[in-house]
Amino acid sequence: MEDSVEIILQDGSSRFSHPTQDKPVVTAASGAVLIGLYGLWTVFALPGFRKVPKSLKVPYLPSSRTQTRNVLKLLRSRSGCLADLGSGDGRLVFAASSLGFQCTGFEINSILIGYARVRALWMGVPTSTARFVNKDFWKTNLSGYKNVTVFLAPGVMEVLARKLMEELADDSRVIACRFPFPDWPVAASEGHGLDRAWAYDMATVRRLARQPPIAC
Ligand SMILES: C[S@@+](CC[C@H](N)C(=O)[O-])C[C@H]1O[C@@H](n2cnc3c(N)ncnc32)[C@H](O)[C@@H]1O
């Protein structure tokens, strides 16, 4: 009887033991992969951020093709200089430059800037249509741009709204991806869910900002 109980216990413990307990190599390999992925993420997503205040830090996350297509739709009937704030690997800059815009991508991550510049050279895109500047856009005056595109983070949109209100001309258009400006009147929008993009015309944004608040 005792023997059979022991057999049952032994059998049970082997059946319910965690699969990786028996496979230390698998556990070690998974750990190494996770650490490697975290290392890659910090190398590609974070360099250059030391001087940016913590509340304004935005990591790299590439936009989808649908998102880029939605931005291009909102740029229809527009022309001139375009600034992409946080240009990442340059995908939006390349797409907009193919429509005839003179684009500048501002990017704080020097690895992504290097990648975008090499890609521009490889594709034969001249710097007159696609320029990549390794600069903090918070410290850049954007008054020369008639078109501004942003794919950043919800926490920075209010601060960015104040900066753009101060610097952009009335005939400028701002396009925000995924995260809209909290209080700005929307001129048009394209797409749904994570790929949605919103367009704002500065003249309308300013007109609304000048209106006195409605008394209750
Ligand atoms: C969400 S990603 C968007 C990348 C790209 N626009 C796209 O659509 O694929 C935000 C980018 O902004 C960059 N960034 C964040 N803060 C910045 C700053 N102050 N100046 C310049 N670039 C910044 C990040 O390094 C990152 O590449």
Automatic annotation (TrEMBL):
One of its GO terms (biological process) is regulation of mitochondrial ATP synthesis coupled proton transport. It comes from the Eukaryota. Keywords: Membrane, Methyltransferase, S-adenosyl-L-methionine, Transferase, Transmembrane, Transmembrane helix. The chain crosses the membrane at residues 25-46. Gene3D superfamilies: Vaccinia Virus protein VP39 (3.40.50.150). One of its GO terms (cellular component) is mitochondrion. GO terms for molecular function: protein-lysine N-methyltransferase activity. Belongs to the ANT/ATPSC lysine N-methyltransferase family. This is Uncharacterized protein. The gene is si:dkey-190g11.3.
